[in-house]
Amino acid sequence: MVGEEGAFVLGWDEVLTEEELSVTLKVLCMSEEEFKEYKEQDGWEDDSEEEENSTLSNEALSRLKTPCKKLLYDSVLLTLESYGTDLKAEQDLLNDKEAYEKLSRREQQALHVRYGQKRILHQLLELVQ
Protein backbone atom coordinates (compact mmCIF):
# COMPACT_ATOMS: atom_id res chain seq x y z
CA MET A 1 0.00 0.00 0.00
CA VAL A 2 2.78 2.43 0.85
CA GLY A 3 5.20 1.79 -1.99
CA GLU A 4 8.88 1.04 -1.97
CA GLU A 5 9.96 3.81 0.41
CA GLY A 6 7.37 2.96 3.04
CA ALA A 7 6.58 6.63 3.56
CA PHE A 8 4.00 9.21 2.56
CA VAL A 9 4.95 12.49 0.92
CA LEU A 10 3.39 15.62 2.39
CA GLY A 11 3.46 19.09 0.90
CA TRP A 12 2.43 22.44 2.32
CA ASP A 13 -1.06 22.27 0.81
CA GLU A 14 -1.83 18.60 0.29
CA VAL A 15 -0.64 15.02 0.50
CA LEU A 16 1.39 14.22 -2.60
CA THR A 17 0.98 10.46 -2.21
CA GLU A 18 -2.74 10.81 -1.59
CA GLU A 19 -3.85 7.49 -3.05
CA GLU A 20 -1.45 5.51 -0.85
CA LEU A 21 -2.36 7.46 2.28
CA SER A 22 -6.09 7.27 1.56
CA VAL A 23 -6.04 3.49 1.06
CA THR A 24 -3.78 2.97 4.07
CA LEU A 25 -6.04 5.01 6.35
CA LYS A 26 -9.13 3.19 5.09
CA VAL A 27 -7.59 -0.21 5.73
CA LEU A 28 -6.08 0.63 9.11
CA CYS A 29 -9.33 2.16 10.36
CA MET A 30 -11.52 -0.77 9.24
CA SER A 31 -13.25 -3.09 11.63
CA GLU A 32 -12.26 -6.74 11.46
CA GLU A 33 -15.43 -7.52 9.51
CA GLU A 34 -14.83 -4.72 7.02
CA PHE A 35 -11.26 -5.91 6.52
CA LYS A 36 -12.38 -9.47 5.83
CA GLU A 37 -14.79 -8.16 3.20
CA TYR A 38 -12.06 -5.98 1.73
CA LYS A 39 -9.71 -8.98 1.44
CA GLU A 40 -12.43 -11.17 -0.09
CA GLN A 41 -13.17 -8.54 -2.73
CA ASP A 42 -9.45 -7.99 -3.37
CA GLY A 43 -9.87 -4.31 -2.51
CA TRP A 44 -12.65 -1.97 -3.46
CA GLU A 45 -14.29 -2.75 -6.76
CA ASP A 46 -15.72 0.69 -7.42
CA ASP A 47 -14.93 3.71 -5.28
CA SER A 48 -17.50 6.41 -5.39
CA GLU A 49 -16.92 9.21 -7.89
CA GLU A 50 -16.51 11.63 -5.00
CA GLU A 51 -13.56 9.67 -3.60
CA GLU A 52 -11.91 9.38 -7.00
CA ASN A 53 -12.06 13.13 -7.57
CA SER A 54 -11.09 14.22 -4.07
CA THR A 55 -7.59 15.17 -3.05
CA LEU A 56 -6.15 15.00 0.40
CA SER A 57 -5.75 18.73 0.79
CA ASN A 58 -5.09 20.24 4.20
CA GLU A 59 -8.78 21.03 4.45
CA ALA A 60 -9.72 17.41 3.66
CA LEU A 61 -7.23 16.12 6.24
CA SER A 62 -8.86 18.23 8.93
CA ARG A 63 -12.24 16.63 8.08
CA LEU A 64 -11.09 13.01 8.39
CA LYS A 65 -12.93 10.71 10.77
CA THR A 66 -11.60 10.70 14.32
CA PRO A 67 -9.86 7.29 14.15
CA CYS A 68 -7.98 8.31 11.01
CA LYS A 69 -6.99 11.65 12.54
CA LYS A 70 -5.73 9.89 15.68
CA LEU A 71 -3.72 7.44 13.58
CA LEU A 72 -2.13 10.28 11.60
CA TYR A 73 -1.49 12.31 14.76
CA ASP A 74 0.27 9.42 16.50
CA SER A 75 2.27 8.64 13.35
CA VAL A 76 3.45 12.23 13.07
CA LEU A 77 4.50 12.23 16.74
CA LEU A 78 6.54 9.06 16.16
CA THR A 79 8.16 10.62 13.10
CA LEU A 80 9.05 13.78 15.01
CA GLU A 81 10.55 11.69 17.82
CA SER A 82 12.89 10.06 15.29
CA TYR A 83 14.67 13.39 14.75
CA GLY A 84 17.56 14.23 17.04
CA THR A 85 16.28 17.74 17.73
CA ASP A 86 12.94 19.51 17.86
CA LEU A 87 11.58 22.33 15.70
CA LYS A 88 12.59 25.04 18.18
CA ALA A 89 16.22 23.86 18.25
CA GLU A 90 16.36 24.03 14.44
CA GLN A 91 14.78 27.49 14.45
CA ASP A 92 17.20 28.71 17.13
CA LEU A 93 20.16 27.48 15.07
CA LEU A 94 18.80 29.19 11.95
CA ASN A 95 18.42 32.43 13.91
CA ASP A 96 21.89 32.23 15.49
CA LYS A 97 23.98 33.75 12.69
CA GLU A 98 27.31 32.97 14.35
CA ALA A 99 26.49 29.28 14.97
CA TYR A 100 24.91 28.95 11.52
CA GLU A 101 28.04 30.33 9.83
CA LYS A 102 30.16 27.68 11.59
CA LEU A 103 28.20 24.93 9.84
CA SER A 104 29.49 23.56 6.56
CA ARG A 105 27.43 24.28 3.44
CA ARG A 106 26.14 20.71 3.53
CA GLU A 107 25.14 21.02 7.20
CA GLN A 108 23.34 24.30 6.45
CA GLN A 109 21.38 22.66 3.65
CA ALA A 110 20.52 19.68 5.86
CA LEU A 111 19.33 22.09 8.56
CA HIS A 112 17.00 23.81 6.11
CA VAL A 113 15.60 20.48 4.92
CA ARG A 114 15.01 19.20 8.48
CA TYR A 115 13.43 22.49 9.49
CA GLY A 116 11.06 22.40 6.52
CA GLN A 117 10.13 18.78 7.19
CA LYS A 118 9.39 19.50 10.83
CA ARG A 119 7.28 22.55 9.96
CA ILE A 120 5.15 20.45 7.61
CA LEU A 121 4.77 17.75 10.27
CA HIS A 122 3.75 20.32 12.89
CA GLN A 123 1.22 21.75 10.45
CA LEU A 124 -0.21 18.25 9.99
CA LEU A 125 -0.46 17.85 13.78
CA GLU A 126 -2.56 21.00 13.94
CA LEU A 127 -4.82 19.82 11.12
CA VAL A 128 -5.63 16.48 12.72
CA GLN A 129 -5.95 17.51 16.38
CATH class: Alpha Beta
| Share in helix | 55-70%
Quote the beta fraction.
Answer: under 5%
Name the CATH architecture. Answer: Alpha-Beta Complex
Structural class: mainly alpha
SSE arrangement:
Blueprint: H1 18-28, H2 32-40, H3 49-53, H4 58-62, H5 66-81, H6 87-95, H7 97-102, H8 105-128
Task: Describe this protein with a few key phrases.
129 residues, mainly alpha, set domain protein methyltransferase, domain 2, 8 helices, 66% helix, 0% strand, Rubisco_LSMT_subst-bd_sf
What does this protein structure show overall?
The protein is built from 8 helices and no strands. The protein is mostly helical and 129 residues long. The protein has a single domain, classed as set domain protein methyltransferase, domain 2, CATH 3.90.1420. Helix 5 packs antiparallel against helix 8 and helix 6 (87-95) crosses helix 8 (105-128). The radius of gyration is 18 Å and the shape is elongated. 8% of the residues are buried.
Q: In a nutshell, what does this entry contain?
A:
Its main location: nucleus. This protein has 129 residues and is mainly alpha-helical.
